Amino acid sequence: MDGELMPHRAGQPARLCRLTLTDITAQRRAQDEVLRLNTSLEARVEGRTRQLRDLNGELETMMYAVTHDLQAPLRQIRGFTQALLRDVPVAEEQQRLMTYISQSSDQMDELLFALQEYFRAGQQRLRADSVDLDRVLRTVWHEQQAALDAEREVVLTHDPLPQVRGDVVALQMVLSHLIGNAVKFTQGQHPARIHVCMKNHEQDFVVCVRDNGVG
Fold first, then answer.
1. Is there a contact between 3 and 19 (Cβ–Cβ < 8 Å)?
2. Which residues contact 113 (CB under 8 A, 6 or more apart)?
3. Is residue 149 situated within a structural domain?
4. Pairwise CA distance, residues 211 & 89, whole Å
5. Taking CA 140 as the corner, what is the angle to CA 134 and CA 142, rounded to the nearest 5 degrees?
6. How many domains does the chain have?
7. Where residue 6 falls among pLDDT bands split at 50, 70, 90?
8. Is the full-model pTM beyond 0.85?
């Protein structure tokens, strides 16, 4: 709405004014419709996000159960194969094939275990605490040594490791997988050598694992 005083004779202001009115009903309706659509869209997005979150949770639960259930028959296959290799005389070719079956079962068991660890990590909420990486590495290496064959010689060295901010469980899991892979792929090396190195990258730390294995 606009308004102005209407001039009178001799330049004197009058008691009358002129008003200009603009009908904004359509504009207000359009604004209300946009607001309604935005509200509806936000509600739909929130609903779809909640559905996806629920579906992902169900999928993770199902996959965790499947990987757990598959481990039992794999252990049976490995156990029966090892029993045959140990107790039943077989030709060289049959022995090679059964050894291959046993090794493949071990690899599949490791993959299933890794999947379980992945799903378990996804269900946990990360906590940012002060973590002593040197202490985490000692814990991981102690666990790895307990699983080593008695005849294997594996030498672990490392750079000075700092205190960092992170989730101690997640960091221990990552280091365990890295060290475990290094132990696995250095079989046949006498001795096997694994080195954990640390580099500064701007304000972050980069930890890497090197070994003298294949690849």
1. yes
2. 71
3. yes
4. 38
5. 100
6. 2
7. low
8. no
Domain membership flag for residue 48: yes
- Whether 199 is in a domain gets the answer yes
Rounded-to-integer distance, Cα 166 and Cα 171, Å: 7
What are the pLDDT digits (tens) for 194-212?
Answer: 999 988 877 788 889 999 9
CA distance 146 to 186: 17
Tell me which long-range contacts 167-170 makes (C-beta under 8 A, separation of at least 24): 167/126, 167/127, 167/128, 167/129, 167/131, 168/127, 168/129, 168/131, 168/136, 169/124, 170/121, 170/124, 170/126
pLDDT digits (tens, 9 = 90+) for 132-148: 999 999 988 988 887 78
Closest by CA position to 102, among listed 126, 129, 75: 75
Domain that holds residue 61: 35-122
Structure tokens at 185: 């792929």
Distance CA 116, CA 60 (A): 9
154-158 and 192-201 strand pairing: parallel
Per the domain annotation, does 56 fall within a domain?
yes
